[in-house]
Amino acid sequence: MRLRFLGTGTSFGVPVVGCGCVVCRSADPRNRRSRHALLLSDGERRLLVDTPPELRLQLLAADVRRLDAVYLSHAHADHLHGIDDLRALTGSGPLPLHAAEEHAAEVRARFPYFLGAERSRQPGTVLPDLDLRPFRDREEIVAGGFRLRTIGFPHGATTSYGFRCGGLAVIIDGKRVPEDAWPLLAGADTLVMNALWRGKPHATHFTVDEAVSVAARCGAARTWLTHLTHRVDHGPLEATLPAAVRLARDGLEIEV
């Protein structure tokens, strides 16, 4: 099983529009971060995690020509608003879109022209053909042939859903690990989790140091930090991290 980091940035992306900081002006390609997305693959199976605004460019860069399913972590714009780009990959039939029950209605409301009760029927219009499949927290689902145990993490006023898939544990957005979720993360070979920056705590996301503590408690063999802001300079920060904790970068592909 392989995991590709299609995008590793936070909601602003990096460089940030209008910013002239050192990281935004950096020549290091690891400091260029599109919004968050993952691609899980195993043989011919492909599962996309999230549909950010840069999705078209990410799929082209990864030479993705087909998908078996999509998993949506939550309905924030930086994780959802590239969903229309899926129309290029749904011509042969509906593509399963797995989203938590509490997010499904919001997704339908934001995209009524292809997910609402009255799909657009304008001649010549090409629409994403998606089969929205709601799930519940801690439910075991099969998405694109991958068996996932969904795990909800508090993320401000909403819940962001990561998952456990074999030796892979994913915390996409979140601020806290619910106490009864720790056993679902324990002993992961690979842990992927959000970490905005090193510094003062954030209200809805883990910081780098908080993420390192989570990784240690999970006992993860290797941890990759993602959802990084322009306050993270890849090389200098990674040099200070424990050997088992690394910073992800756009386009990185790892074996799980």
Structure summarized in a few sentences:
The chain is α/β, with parallel strands linked by helices and 256 residues long. The chain is built from 7 helices and 14 strands. Helix 1 links the parallel strand 3 (45-49) and strand 4 (69-71).
What's the main sheet like? 7 strands, mixed
The ordered string of helix (H) and strand (E) elements is EEEHEHEHHEEEEEHEHEHEE
Number of strands: 14
Distance between the terminal alpha carbons, to the nearest Å? Answer: 5 Å
- Number of discrete helical segments: 7
Radius of gyration over C-alpha positions, nearest whole angstrom: 18 Å
Tell me, briefly, the overall form.
globular
Instruction: Give the class from helix and strand content and strand pairing.
Output: alpha/beta
Low-confidence stretches: none
The spatial strand order of the largest sheet comes to 6-5-4-3-2-1-14
Estimated share of beta-strand residues: 25-35%
Level of helix content?
Answer: 10-25%
Query: Average pLDDT, to the nearest integer?
Result: 96
